[in-house]
Amino acid sequence: MNFELNGARLREARRYRHMTVADLAEKASVTKQMISRYERGNATPGLDVFQKIIQTLKFPLDYFITKDKLEFQDGGTFFRSRLTATQSEKEPSETYKRATAIVRDYFGEYVDFPELTEDQFEDDTPRQAAIKLRNHWGLGEAPISNMMRLLEAHGMVVAVVDSKSKKIDAHSGFYTVDGRSYYIVLVDKASNSFYRQQFTQAHELGHRVIHANVLNPQELDADEYRQMEKEADQFAAEFLLPAQAFEKTLGTDKLDLKHFLYLKNYWHVAIAAMVYRARDLGLVSADDYLKLQKKISYRQWRKVEPLDVETPPSTPVLLKQSLDLLMKQNIVDPSELSHELGAQYGTPFPNEILAEIIGVDLSQFSGEIVQLKPLHK
Question: Among 49, 71, 190, 274, which has the minimal tally of Cβ within 10 Å of its Cβ?
Answer without folding.
Answer: 71
